[in-house]
Structures are given as C-alpha cells and as structure tokens.
Amino acid sequence: METPVRVVHYLNQFFGGIGAEEHANTPVQVRDGPVGPGRALQQMLGESGSVVATIICGDNYFVEETEAASQTVREALERIQPSVVVSGPAFDAGRYGMACGLISGLATELGIPSVTAMHPDNSGIVVYGKDMIAIPTGVDAAEMQAVLKDVAGLAIRLGRGNELGPADEEGYLPRGYRRIVNRDKSGAERALEMLTAYVHDRPFTTEIPIRAYEAIPAPAPIANIREATIAMVSSGGIVPRSNPDHQVSSRAENYFKYPIEGIDELSVDDWISVHGGFNTVYLNTKDPNYALPLRYARRMEAQGEFKSLYHTCFTTAGTGCAVSVAQRMGAGIAGELRDAGVDAVLMVAT
Amino acid sequence: MSALPSVPLSVGANRVVRGVRVEHVCGDPLLSEEQDAAVGMRIVATAIQSLQTPVDKPTLFEPLAADASKEATHVS
Amino acid sequence: MSLELGTFPVNDAVLGTQTRWHGGVLELDLEELQALVREDPLLKDSRLELAKPGESARISSYEDVVEPRVKVSGPGTVYPGVWGRSSEKVGTGRTHRLSGFAVMECLDMSHLSNTEQLWPSLKMNEHPAAWERFVDMSGPNAERPPFGGLNLLCLVVRAAEGATGEERRSSMHAATMRLSDRLAATTLDIDPPEMETFDLTPRSGLPNIAFVPHLASSEWTFGSRSPLGTSVYGMSRLNYPWMLDPTEVLDGAIYTGGAAGTTWMMVNNPVVLNACRMHGRDVNFKTCVVQRTNWTKEAEKQLMADRLAHALKMADIQGAVITNDVRGQRFLEAILSVQACEREGVKVVLLTEEEDSESGTAPPLLVSVPELKAAVSAGTGATLHPFDGVQRSIGGFDTTQESNMGEIPAIHGRYGTSHFNDIFGYDTQSYDSY
C-alpha cells in the first residue's frame, strides 16, 4: 500500500470560510488539514492522499500583493513539503483563477506538481493555461463534488510522480503542447473510420486542433511618407554571388545584412538566390530584383516618394524555417531597424 | 509582398501585397522588359501605399486591378 | 469493375544459379540480373546487392522502391506509361505480385565531394543523415512501416560527378523496371498462394467516398516534358485532377521515381487498400483522384481546388480522404481543397503530418481554414530511437563511411527533416495535445 500523497490545498477567502467579497483583501493564512471543500477533496482522495494543510487567501490580496503573498506561500510549501498542490476549483471566478495560476507557478518553481480546476474561459487559463494542469469546469459550484473527484484522481497520480497522458484522455485542458503518441490503429484506418462516421452524420473527434497564430496589432500608418526611411528585407535567399556568409538553402538559422548604398538595382552578376524551395532560375539568370525589388524602390526614392532607403538590406532563406527560428530572426531584424530609426519595411516573402 | 498571400495573412502579417509568382514575386519575366518593369513598379508602389493605409487586421492589397487579362494560368 | 490480386510471399530471398520463385523463396541469379541492368552502358558501374531483414546493414540515399508486379490477364502493363511502357488503362483482370520483397534504387554519392553532392548546403545545420533517405535492416527502427520486414534487392548506381544526373536517373529507373518485370515474371504460370479480389461495383444506398492524394509535381525542377518525378500514367507535369479507379492505383498507375514517397507505397497504399476492403459495407469506394500540386501562384492553387471540388461533386462523392505528400507551400493546396470540397458539400477528412509543435509555440498546421472539421494526425516524422551502427553499408550519402555506417541519433521530426514521411498513414504514430 503506497504512502498517501501529501496534498496542500489552496482556497480563496470565500471557499475558505472567511467571508465573501468584503474579505477579498485577507492576507495569506495557512491552516492544518482540510478546510471547507477540502474535506470533500479528502474524502475523494481516500487512503491515497492526505490534505495536510490548506492555504487561504483573499482574491484581491493575492492579485494585488503578489510579491508578499508569493513569499508566504513559498515559505509554507518549503516547510510543508507536499507531493502535490491542489488549487480551487475556481469555476468562473477570474481573480481566484489567476491566483490558482500563480499558485501553480510557485509550486512548479519548487519542483512540486500541481492541479487546478476552472472554467476554460477563466482569465487564469488565458494567462497561465500553458503552464498548469487545469480540469475544465462549468460556472456552477453545484458541480463541486464531481469536479473534486476528477481533481483527486489527477492529484494522486501527479503526487506519485506519474507523467500524465494526452489532455483528452486524462481530462485536463490542452496546454498547447503536441507530443508523439502511438494510437491503436494506423492513420489510414483512423482516417477512413472518421470519414465513414462523418458521411453517416455520426459523431467523431478530430485529432488536430485548429490553432491560429497570435494576432499582431497593426502598426499605425506612416503619417508623412516623404520623411520616411524604408528598409528592404527578403526571405528569398538573396545573397552576394559568392555567398560569403554561407547562407543555407533550407532550415536557415540566420539572417544576413548586405550594403545596398549606391546600388540602383540588383544584378545577376553580383547577386544570387540560394533558396531551396522553388526554381531560382529567373532570379539567378534574369533578375534578382524579383525577390528584392531594389530597382523599383530606388525609382520611388528618386521621385521623392519617400525620404530614403536604408543603406543595408536584410535577407534569409525561408524554406523549412521553424516558427521559433523565424520569430527570432524577425525580432532580430526588427530590433536592428528600430534602433537605426527606420520607419517601415518592404519585405518579399517567396 | 507575396505570391501566396494566404500564408502571410494567416501568419498575421497586417499589410500584404499580392505578388506575381513565387519564382518572380515583383515582376513577370514572360512579359516584355517594359511591361515587366511596370508590374514590378506597381507592386512596390502598392506596398508604399499600404504603409500609409490604416488597417486593423491582416489586409490584402491588390496591385493589378485588371490582372486577369495579363495572367493566363500557364506554367512553362 | 474488379481486379484479382495474386500474392506470392517472399519469406526468404537467396542468391542462386537461377531466378525463380518457389515455395516462398525467391532465388536470384545475380549475374543474370546484373546483365539485365548493364544492358544500358550508362549503368556499367552499377551493382546489385541483396539486403535482408535482420541484417546489420544500412541502405543509404535510396530513390524509388518498386514491388515486382505483372499483369497476367486484363489490358495494360503494370506501372503504365513510364519508361516506354504502354499507357493503356490498367486495373482489371488479374495481377500477380511478390510480397515481402522489393527493388530499391540507391545512389552511391560517397565518392562525390561535399560541393558536388545533391543540395549540399542543406546539410550544414544538421547531422547529414537527417536529410537523407536511408533504411536500417535491423535495430529499433527496422520494423517500422513501410519497409520493415522487406527483402530488398538494391540497385546501386554511382551518382554522376558534378551533375544532377537526369540521364543517369532515367537509366536507373528504366533498369528498375526491367528488374521488376523479370522478378515478377517468376510468378507466371503458378497459382498464387494468396488471392484477393477487389470488386468495387457500387452498392446502392451507400455514400460514395474518394481518396484524394495531393502529389507534388517536379515540373519546376525538371520541366514539363520530363518523365522524372511523380507521375500518373507517366505524366509528370502539373495538370487537372486525375480521376482513377482505385484498382488502377493497385496496378501502379501512380509512379514516383522516389521524388516524394515511393512507387511501392502507392501500390501498397493503406488508404486505398483499407477503403477497398470497406467497400460495399458502410461506403462505396468510388474513385481515387490525384491532385497535382506545386502551382506557384495562389490563383492557380485556388482554381485547382475549385475544379477538384467540382469533379467530386460531378462524380457524386459524399466524402473524401485528402492527403498531401510534400508540405511547405504545397500544403496550402491541400487546405484550399478541404475548403472548396466542404463548401460544395463534400465532407473531408484531412490525413496529414503536422508541423513540429516546438514545445507548444508553433501551430500544428502551416495554414488552416474554418471548414476543416475532421483531421487525422500522422505525427511529425519523428523517429524516437537512435540508429545503431551497422556492419554493412549499401549506397552512401556521405564521403565518410563513418556517417554511412555509424550511429545516428534519434531524428526529431519536422518539415524537411524526418526519417519517414508518413504521407498515407501507414503507421500508428501520431501527435496529441498535452
């Protein structure tokens, strides 16, 4: 029979029995044993777990005095040495959810696994969802018992040091990670089973979540273009003909900078594309300006359409670039251009 | 400027100008020199225009209004 | 419309004094087969090597893999339209095949300098093997689909110095066909030990489904008239959606030349085979529609997606499994197809590998559309176990035998770097949310 896992339970001032909204500024309190819903949690844990302590804090206090509150909680956890921290359930209470997220973060800092529960739209999920195990709930505390049963189940496994399986199997909210698994049938079989269900209007579960890239707030338009300095960037793999920096044709990790001061257009004598993802014959035998339109930018500059072209162009090769690498390169280029006082960028993506 | 605007629009680029073809985004080697240059110029000018245009989400700017007449679907 | 497929299992392949199949053993007269290859003077330096499952051997830089098949009745020739073969329609009558055995082409590039090897600059950021196509005959990864357990007769061709070697590739592919034909001929006039009939007569009252593989055309590399690259009845160029009977696929109507996936994977396609075997129960498996990709202008991609949806609608298709062989910008074509089909009322399941999650920072698909409702994940092409060093190297991708024969670390799957792209869902490996 395994030793019961040691659980510390975090509750807000309401579930901790102190009071309602008027007590939201209650500082951190640590009590022995379970409190309030913690007793039901203890029942669900049975012999496998023991709620050794309860930490209670006002929703406002935790969110407004996070430093102080975190310090107290940290010390308590270090003293008590639980095998797992349970916080909430917070249902749709936003500040409570945020506090649960912070608690999970503190536990992680100390190497202690944790589990919480709240509504999927709770701001705690929005802000901290990536870093914590959270069981989805509705908005009604009436489902407390059912939720605590699920929480207890995961708390025991986590407290024992077990790794959890995929989110939909284990019943927690997906955190955005995808990992290799082995399914029971081949992809082809699963695809045909899914299609058969679909054409017969029977339910099925898709395997790939739709996930958008993060929205980027659009920069305000340039008020006075005639005063603007504009830089040129390309992911078309445009480099000087000797490829002095050895830019690779695919899976690039670096961008490079080359001077374009005094050059009116790119010529096939001096420039080449090393991009590995398309036929570069036009760029390399006819006109590199197709992928870095210096010729046309210069004409507009000469006409006074904008003040000047930045003296350096930035290039990389886009084939097979990992998203995180592309983000790093983009941030690097943007940082350099911002520091140089450049107002806008003309970028070609091939 | 991209010949496959759906991709940068999807990724979140806010100002996207449609280019001609992946192999030659800012121009068309199958046209005469003058027409090719006119196409390239038009694309860059549209880009400059877009920099002065307020947008609040990924937005596509079309450089060639009547491009149906200039671009047949051909590959070789 | 039906096709009978007679299977002759090759439980063991041995070198001997004649070329014949008997009782599950394929005997190979290597001299005879070598002479058959060297009929073409361009291949005078080539050699044949037999690799068997369980051997400590690595086959590197493989190109196409072809399963010996032959038509014993019904019109046409298997693998129609390529390398001078008849392009008469196939897919009916009876075909014989050898199972557990294939001809594997490989390029020996170990004599080339780094700058002469194909796409040398791609290797600079990774272990050379991560870019290469290789198969280990033993070790923790050997049993994985699709080639696990196959006896492989390797046609090793020395890669051309300093050239892409299109001529040499053509010679190699033609020689592979000669070998395949010669080996498949060992099954003529013998009753197949295993027989399966694919009768795809539609049953009334069942929804019709289609398999729609998106296959990249190599037209931009080799030109529109080149026979190299993936082709349908020998046609490699970008063109309109091809409607095929599923049994045409089983008779080799889709050929790859190793450009993306292998010809072996087409005649043994698990979506086609499983759908054939489901036919008449819950669904009718009506057609396989090949969608060519690698159009480089979005308007073209959109047009092709719309035409595909229209073609499926005209064929009274209610649902389709869509796959895609090479991702990157070609994935946009697959997604546009999903969208166009769903808008036309054709339900779609997209079977695809995903992009590397990069520890949760990157989305699963390059681009997506709200119409994508049903997707099956074939993972990321990862190989979880490292590859042990081997005693024998066939072919070669690097100038050092160390690379060809040494240990290779486990391969983290991502676009462009994976051991095996599970285009058609051969494997159970998948990706899931955590």
Structural features, described:
The complex is a heterotrimer of chains A (350), B (76) and C (434). Chain A is an alpha/beta fold and 350 residues long. Chain A has eleven helices and 13 strands. Chain A has helices spanning 37-45, 59-64, 66-80, 94-109, 123-128, 144-159, 167-170, 187-199, 281-285, 294-302, 323-339; strands spanning 5-12, 29-32, 49-57, 84-87, 114-118, 133-136, 178-182, 229-234, 238-240, 256-259, 271-273, 308-315, 344-348. In chain A, strand 5 (114-118), helix 5 and strand 6 (133-136) form a beta-alpha-beta unit. In chain A, helix 1 crosses helix 6 (144-159) and helix 3 crosses helix 4 (94-109). Chain A is elongated and about 80 Å long. Chain B is mainly α and 76 residues long. Helices cover 33% and strands 8% of the residues of chain B. Chain B has two helices and two strands; from the N terminus they run H-E-H-E. Chain B has a two-stranded parallel sheet with strand order 1-2. Mean pLDDT of chain B is 88; it is low at 66-76. With 434 residues, chain C is of the alpha/beta class. Chain C has two domains: 2-192, no CATH class; 200-377, no CATH class. Chain C has helices at residues 30-37, 166-184, 219-222, 246-250, 263-267, 270-278, 298-314, 331-343, 401-405, and strands at residues 2-9, 12-15, 20-22, 25-28, 47-51, 57-60, 62-66, 69-73, 93-99, 101-108, 134-136, 151-158, 194-199, 208-216, 231-232, 242-244, 254-255, 284-293, 319-324, 347-352, 374-377, 392-395, 429-433. Chain C has a six-stranded mixed β-sheet with strand order 16-18-14-19-20-21, with helices on both faces. In chain C, strands 8-9-1-13 form a four-stranded mixed β-sheet. Chain C is globular and about 60 Å long. The relative contact order of chain C is 0.16. Chains in contact: A-B, A-C, B-C. At the A-C interface, helix 7, strand 7, helix 8 and helix 11 of A face helix 6, strand 19, strand 20, strand 21 and strand 23 of C. Strand 7 (178-182) of chain A pairs antiparallel with strand 23 of chain C, so a sheet runs across the interface.
Give the helix level of chain A as a range of percent: 25-40%
If interface size is counted as residues with C-beta under 8 Å from the partner's C-beta, which chains form the largest one?
A-C, 58 and 73 residues
Order of helices and strands of chain B: HEHE
The backbone outline of chain A, from C-alpha atoms, is elongated
Q: Hey, roughly how much beta strand do the residues of chain A contain? A: 15-25%
**How many separate domains of chain A?**
2
